[in-house]
Each structure stands twice: as structure tokens, then as C-alpha cells.
Amino acid sequence: xxxxxxxxxxxxxxxxxxxxxxxxxxxxxxxxxxxxxxxxxxxxxxxxxxxxxxxxxxxxxxxxxxxxxxxxxxxxxxxxxxxxxxxxxxxxxxxxxxxxxxxxxxxxx
Length: 109
Fold this sequence. Notes:
Helix content: 10-25%
Strand content: 35-45%
Radius of gyration: 18 Å
Oligomer: single chain
């Protein structure tokens, strides 16, 4: 599992005329400001069936809130990856789930 926080800067797209959502993401510069990895299960054999793997990222400070502006995005996601090794080929299954961060406990002046 990987917890990722990223800033996507598309200010160059605005300057050069990028207008579609596809060009907005593909030409934007991405900077990861947090990336934490956690191994859920050691390599081994898993029998057929359905499994739940509980996990948590402890002591993570997500002080930067999710933001979607005209030229800047701040996104968070959790990525999961499972690799199955076989006799003839290997198979990799990946999934990504995004989430939002909103800090309501900020001090007000």
C-alpha cells in the first residue's frame, strides 16, 4: 500500500492554451509531497477466496488540504498492488482510490 499526496501544477497549460481535461493532466507538472509505503502481507501462497487486509498509516500529518483551483490541484490517494507469480507469466493487479483532506480544527484569529 502506498499513501501519496501530490501537487499538480498546470499553470503552463493556461499560458500555452491547454483547455481540455486530458491535456490538463497529461502536460501538468506533478510533485509528490508525501509518499508512505506499507507492506500488507509477506510473499507466499494465498488460497482461492476473498480476503480483507486491514491496514493503517500511523502518525501521518495531513496538514495540507485537498484543493482544486484553476492552475493548481492538491490530491491524495492510496494505491494497492498485488503481484501474482505463475509458472508461465506474472500478473500485476493495481488499484488507486483517491480521498479528500479537510482540516476543521484550525485555530481562528
